[in-house]
Design brief:
About 35% of the residues lie in helices and about 25% in strands. By secondary structure, the protein is α+β, with helices and mostly antiparallel strands. The chain has a 4-stranded antiparallel sheet with strand order 1-4-2-3.
Length: about 90
């Protein structure tokens, strides 16, 4: 099985270095594989550089895909970061 969520970037600055670091730090707390997909780009969410290269701007939709034993908890934790706008506003 695999968990998939559609997340929307709600902070005006988009996913720059700080949110990317938060995403990667959160993803790395879990054992499962964590992939983020924007358009045709697929990146490993455990890599800060990977997340930054997506260049996800405000209001962009991103597909989050987690696969592994703790995939649901991981997907929920990352979704929360998006919901809280990475605590930037």
């Amino acid at each position: 099985f695999m968990t998939e969520k559609i997340l929307t970037v709600r902070n005006r600055a988009g996913i720059h270095a700080r949110p990317a670091a938060l995403i990667a730090q959160t993803a790395n707390k879990f054992a499962c594989e964590v992939t983020m997909i924007k358009d045709d780009a697929e990146v490993n969410a455990k890599s800060i550089m990977g997340v930054i290269t997506m260049a996800a701007a405000y209001n962009t939709n991103i597909t989050l895909r987690t696969d592994g034993a703790d995939e649901v908890q991981c997907a929920d934790a990352i979704a929360q970061l998006f919901d809280k706008k990475f605590e930037e506003e």
